[in-house]
Amino acid sequence: MRRFLVFVLIFPLILTLILSALSFYEDSSVADMQVMPGMIWRGYLIGIVPALVTALVDWLLRRHHLSRILPTALSGYALAAGAGLLMRDVSVFEALQFGFIGAVPAAMCSVFSGKQRLDDVAGNYADSALNSNSN
Q1: Residue 109 and residue 135: Cα distance in Å, rounded?
Q2: Out of 43, 76, 88, 129, which residue is the most buried by the measure of CB atoms under 10 Å away?
Q3: CA-CA distances (angstroms) from residue 57 to 35, 91, 120?
Q4: What gap in Å lies between CA 116 and CA 96, rounded to an integer?
């Protein structure tokens, strides 16, 4: 339950902040802070379904020994890249770049929602790499 709450509350906010930063970077006339509240509620409206899907992936992977952060980030990437491919005026390369907009909030929410710390994740990968080399 906590995991889904973290994803539903934080994923759309991070998604909105990333999209806002990109749009402000490309068009400085959009940098008016009066449009920010409208962007936030639209971000929640658009981001709620990807947040729930990535939360489900994260929840399904919670019992595995390896980290669930990378697979959750990949699911966020796939959702965002798929949404990018559905846009009509976007090339495949741009749609694949669009995938990173979904991967970042998915990975961050996976970190925030779990009891596993980042240094534990690095240790798990290092341990598995050492064990595979010793065989």
Answers
A1: 35
A2: 76
A3: 33, 28, 20
A4: 29
Please state the pTM of the whole predicted model: 0.72
26/4 Cα distance (integer angstroms): 33
As a whole number of angstroms, the distance between CA 36 and CA 126 comes to 42
User: Please, which residues have CB within 8 angstroms of residue 12's CB and are 6 or more apart in sequence?
Assistant: 43, 44, 46, 47, 48, 51, 105
SS3 assignment for the chain: CHHHHHHHHHHHHHHHHHHHHHHHHHCHHHCCHHHHHHHHHHHHHHHHHHHHHHHHHHHHCCCCCCCCHHHHHHHHHHHHHHHHHHCCCCCHHHHHHHHHHHHHHHHHHHHHHCCCCHHHHHHHHHHHHHHHHHC
Contact 17, 108 (CB under 8 A): no
How far apart are the C-alpha atoms of 84 and 70, rounded to whole Å? 21
Residues 89-125 have pLDDT tens digits of 778 888 888 888 889 999 999 888 876 555 555 555 5
Q: Are 60 and 7 in contact (CB under 8 A)?
A: no
